[in-house]
Amino acid sequence: MKEKRTQHRSGGFMEGKGFYIVLFLCVAAIGISGYYLFSGLTASTEGFGPEASTVVSGQAELEKDDAATQTPAGEDTQQEEPPDSSAQETAKQEGQTPAQQPEDDPTAQEPAASSTAYVWPVQGSVDRDFSLEVFAYDATMGDWRTHSGLDIAAELGAPVSACGKGTVTDVSTDPMMGTTVTIDHGRGMESIYSNLAESVNVQVGDAVEAGSVLGSVGTTAIAESASPSHLHFEMIEYDVPIDPLNYLH
To answer: Quick check: pTM over 0.90?
Structure first.
């Protein structure tokens, strides 16, 4: 009987005390695991504290300043020199910008072609006037039409002269107006001499002066063959026929 009681007490002691021992060991294990886990988390977050934020922020500011001061690729770092202030001041006083200052132009001082006095190409009276707005009767064609020049009455073979300084640009035989010479006087002005004799004294490219003999009065203009012997004379300014009487002196 005594042995059974001893065994019962021993088993009760183990059942009573063993439970608390096991519980203590479990709590200790949890505590140790929590300690190491907390230590690992603390170590991993040390680099992100206030000091780390300050370092990162300072580095970002430095990179921003460097980017602002760097010159873009391919851009010239040299600044353009300012224009000559003295030239600008002179231009302002003259009422011009530097780009508007006139260049040396040999023709700048030449008078306008329309203001130049032209001489009569042949001596004689006007047999038929210039008329582009009013129709006039044409004895040769037998109808009423405009007339783009002057018919200056002159003897057959009378010398015909250039009305002004210029360059011969055309010597041709017109199907209706016969032998014709054209002179360019510059600044849009041209003079045309028709119904000349077949033989002329000039050729294309010749420079002539006022009074230079071009040829003589002929009978080559079929369109005006019914009219008395004359020179058909025209003046054109910028491709527009004008009345020669307004320019001949």
So the answer is: no
